[in-house]
User: What shape does this take?
Amino acid sequence: MSYVAGTMTETDVLNQLLTAEEQGFTLDSARALLSLRFSSTAIDRMNELAAKNQQGTLTDAERADLEKFLRVGNFLNIVQAKAHHFSSVSARTDN
Assistant: This one.
């Protein structure tokens, strides 16, 4: 896949890092990745920032924090999707 300079997102870069052909997962590492969750404190903060965003009352610093949570959340989603796929494939081949 080719990209126009300046149009790649962090998600695009991470997705290339975690290609299906070179995942490097073991079943244990896939399970560990699938168990990763944000803490209740982080979830509360994300909810607070999301509410302020909907109200249009986010400060610039809060917007930056919200964007960081979103980027990390997107990364976690990609990694966990790859780990889930690996786990599913491993479970089918083990039978």
